[in-house]
Amino acid sequence: MADLREALYVGINEYEHRPSLRACEADARAMAEALEVEFGGKSNWTPASSALLLGARATERELLLRTENLLQAGAYDHGDVLFYFSGHADRLDDGDLLLASVDDDPNDSDSRHGLRFSRLVRYIREASGVNSVTIILDCCHAGAIKNIDVPVNVTVLAASRDNQQAIENDGRGRFTGILLAGLNGESVGSADLFGGVTAVSLYADANAMLNYRRDRQQPMLKACLEKIVVLKHVQPSLDIQCLRRLGGDDPRPGRGRIFDSAASVFEAYPEMEAPNAAHGEYRTGDERERDLTDSQRLMNDFKYWRNVHLIELYDEYGEPSDDLFFVCLHRGTIRLTARGRYYWNLVTQGRL
């Protein structure tokens, strides 16, 4: 796979024969900037300076040429390709979706201008060496893509159903605004524990947000996937070093590992809170890290594992609890959740 992944971002506000839009060009530019560099400063998708096709430049001729070249470049590198469109679009009588170029005239039924979705799919099929294609359509009637089959490892995020408009609000397309929040690390639900953001997770976030707000806009996802491609890495919510300690040793001599197996039960003990916790002497919270005992450091790990839902707590009677302090003080038990068991297996198999 190429180090730099190929992208094209199309945004059109002012059309020659159609009503003006407000947010499309700014949305395309914001998407390009959000995807250009990921967490840690690593280059990601094509730089915005060379990946944008905006306004009057987005004629049918240029749109078709740039799109075909995009997919040919992706096929040459056996890489990932991303195509973003924000502008006017129409559902055609034959069920196709026309992504309108700046020179399109909807009143001239004999000569429409733009990129048909079916043609985009044909370009993808002809570029057989592409690893994956992600298509993001923030336009009205985008759901008309449901009528056209897509190849394997092509994912389409559509802002609306085929009979709906894509809403603009406060200078931003509402759908694109939700996607940008995920790609910029501002939406916890769009990234996995390692900070990976995918088209599937972005769709889940957008679907939840638009349904929660009861907007007159229902996003759609169309895909046939053998693999899920991470579009971008943002600040991870997971501390990898702390996660690896799931497979570590109990600090007490002769005790073995904290969790001997994914299904084992760890018996908590008061000294995880403080050396004399059993006698009522607790941690003040002002202790420096270097002054903590190994058992207290284990307590800090358990706090973190609890917060990212890797463990579940039970009191001394075997009842579920959410209070780690009292579980330790009264010698309750701690077990791995399903997610915790998954990561414990990765750690102990040396895959993390």
TrEMBL record:
UniProt record, GO biological process: proteolysis
Domain Peptidase C14 caspase: 7-223
InterPro entries per UniProt: Pept_C14_caspase (IPR011600)
Source organism, top-level taxon: Bacteria
GO MF term list: cysteine-type endopeptidase activity
Protein's name in the database: Caspase
Species annotation: Bifidobacterium vansinderenii
